User: Which sequence fits this backbone?
């Protein structure tokens, strides 16, 4: 079964609430919005991602025969409710910031307008999808900013949190500006460019390191990138120099070497010298091993002669901030705006829009969050995506989203692009929205 | 498609190495072991989990027609190699510590013995599965130790990293001692007990909080747990008291209330008093909201009148340590032990066994890691699981694994059970293993 589209991939309370809504006839239109409450420490912005998977989930939403049978046999639900579930589809509207949009706390990036049971049921998976890809795209963008144009590749599948995390991390990091991924399934499903070298086990399985390199070259003539740190990095670089002429006679050209341990800047410097002196100035140096945006910044600042970087666990788990404080909250029901007032978790009511103002330098200067039917200066970021359960336009090619993301990152204030602690971009709450909150609170 | 069993859910380099192995006829038996290099900060032990999913993955391993077609059309692989992939199955042996076993750094918890291409190909997904569930079981066990017997429920699907993470976090936390989960699919697939209450949106969608409670009670007569912090916690507790007699006349009994914000110890105290004075001493108090093992310890230490706890994001993302420094390394090929000597990443060579010694108090005193054919005193932890691609025994019921894990946690040294900084359990490397490493290094 495809767990990604299972209607049972949800919290039990969604189903129990649904039964109560249905029994009470509470099926009027509800408006929910997804937003992030605050920036993690040291972060200055978010990059929206995951919308495409949300739309696919909503388009396909239905209970299978087996799922309906499970509901019926669980003893928790009435026959009438199971029959209701059999017919349930998503028939609502979706508004959203396009994937690749930069955004800030308290800004709705997705708005769902649908009959209450539908809008409620989808909460868990919608958060699950938007949260993870936005988390990873926002993290990956920091590495992209750190390396200032050099290629980055996602090597993080193995320690990502399960199958879907690895797959979607490849998508989210590519969207954010990575050159590609090692995850083959992301190549076959999303068209993300694929990269790969060899593992230490490949070298170890051979009796001789040079022999391992030669075998790999024969098998992958178009992609000869040799891992040289299994035993001693500089010794192996010497073996590469010695091997190159032998390969050349067979018409094979070594494209690169990979370093995966030790002080990468120091090793890269020594290896570059060995390769250059050995007549291999075109052989590139790829590095990997516990890299995050700070390690990347340091390698770039040190002027280490590195041509590309592979980033793994720190990116696919967003290790320094492995979750976002996000929520999907009811903002309106049956035409009546509402908000939660729980301690420390109060939200702004009603359906909302975000307007973005740019400075004279073209950089993002300020956002204004206001009620959806208010008009403000600036660019309206929340756009219609689905109407009555159907997409309004075909999904954007991933390459186009990546181009958009690059343009968005280019418009960040310079201090945020430098990954420095810097004043946040101001997010202003409009007077119209404040007035609405006041009237909601006064109503009680 | 079920991405969980896709043969393309792997790193590109596994496929390119495979092609080289196959072309060179390097198909002799290889031994790989999975282990964790070090404990995350403040952690004292790991709890093994994920083996069942690894076995299922190995049993089902094969390239589908579509996957073979993708390989052929990618331009990266020879026709002969694609034909090899069409016939590829896992035909090897698997040894492992049973799920629910406590273990420590440098101890192999899984050993694969198989023809080199098979053992290599499975690396990425095997790590991906063992890493995540072991990460989560080890984290969840800390909450279990913190609450000293009170029920814990997993509420973490929404911010877990994708579909499989949420699903497997429910399994891993149940295995570690949680009472159950809110994730419905974990109930239907694994039989994990399900729990759930209501969301703030349910209360907000009603014009009146009491009316929301009454509707919920009608729809869920067996499971009336009311969320009381949407507006004002103590006011809502008063409404619960006022509502109870009305429900009682309909034969309905309120089982509990849930608090999700503010100072949970303070609110629980006040709410307990309101409920008791209102004649509802049997109504339980459930709390949730940013709980981790330290918050749980503090609530228990404060003597807060709380009956059960829901734990979410901090557990399903293992927020304070979102990954383990784990590896799956080649230890032997064609009867020849080997090891990687990369800086800071050297490993112990050969196929290994772990023996556990217990003290007079029945607690774990020391582990000894040695070569597999060495005999030592103590309990041998690594056991045969698969032979020639087949399970040696049916999979253990999850409830049995949970019972084993509880027994294992009971045998931890008391300081580790208290989550205190404490001396690690000693893991001794046997002389036989040291001798083997020396001979491997001398061989060059």
Assistant:
């Amino acid at each position: 079964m495809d767990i990604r589209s299972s209607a049972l991939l949800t919290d039990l309370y969604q189903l129990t609430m649904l039964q109560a809504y249905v029994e009470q006839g509470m099926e009027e239109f509800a408006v929910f919005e997804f937003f992030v409450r605050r920036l993690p420490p040291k972060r200055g912005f978010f990059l929206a991602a995951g919308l495409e998977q949300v739309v696919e989930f909503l388009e396909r939403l239905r209970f299978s025969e087996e799922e309906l049978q499970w509901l019926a046999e669980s003893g928790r639900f009435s026959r009438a409710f199971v029959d209701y579930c059999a017919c349930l589809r998503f028939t609502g509207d979706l508004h959203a910031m396009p994937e690749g949009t930069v955004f800030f706390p308290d800004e709705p990036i997705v708005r769902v307008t649908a009959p209450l049971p539908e809008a409620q049921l989808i909460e868990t998976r919608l958060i699950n999808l938007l949260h993870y890809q936005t988390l990873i795209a926002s993290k990956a963008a920091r590495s992209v900013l750190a390396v200032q144009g050099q290629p980055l590749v996602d090597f993080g599948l193995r320690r990502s949190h399960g199958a879907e995390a690895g797959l979607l991390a490849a998508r989210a990091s590519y969207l954010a500006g990575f050159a590609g991924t090692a995850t083959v399934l992301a190549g076959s499903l999303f068209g993300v460019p694929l990269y790969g070298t060899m593992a230490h086990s490949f070298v170890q399985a051979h009796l001789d390191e040079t022999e391992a390199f030669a075998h790999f070259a024969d098998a992958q003539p178009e992609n000869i990138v040799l891992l040289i740190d299994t035993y001693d990095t500089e010794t192996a670089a010497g073996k590469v120099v010695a091997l190159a002429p032998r390969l050349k006679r067979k018409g094979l050209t070594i494209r690169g070497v990979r370093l995966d341990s030790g002080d990468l800047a120091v090793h890269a410097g020594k290896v570059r010298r060995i390769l250059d002196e050995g007549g291999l100035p075109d052989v590139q140096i790829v590095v990997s091993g516990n890299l995050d945006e700070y390690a990347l910044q340091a390698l770039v600042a040190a002027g280490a002669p590195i041509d590309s970087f592979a980033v793994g666990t720190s990116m696919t788990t967003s290790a320094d901030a492995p979750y976002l404080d996000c929520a999907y909250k009811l903002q309106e029901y049956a035409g009546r705006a509402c908000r939660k007032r729980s301690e420390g978790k109060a939200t702004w009511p009603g359906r909302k829009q975000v307007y973005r103002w740019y400075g004279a330098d073209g950089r993002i200067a300020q956002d204004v969050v206001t009620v959806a039917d208010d008009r403000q200066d600036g660019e309206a970021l929340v756009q219609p995506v689905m109407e009555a359960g159907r997409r309004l336009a075909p999904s954007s090619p991933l390459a186009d989203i990546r181009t958009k993301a690059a343009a968005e990152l280019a418009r960040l204030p310079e201090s945020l692009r430098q990954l420095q602690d810097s004043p946040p971009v101001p997010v202003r709450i409009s007077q119209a929205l404040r007035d609405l909150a006041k009237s909601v609170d006064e109503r009680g």
In short: Residues 22 and 117 of chain A are 7 Å apart (CA to CA). The mean pLDDT of chain A is 96. Chain A touches chain B through 104 residues (CB under 8 Å). The domain at 148-316 of chain A is CATH 3.20.20.70 (TIM Barrel).
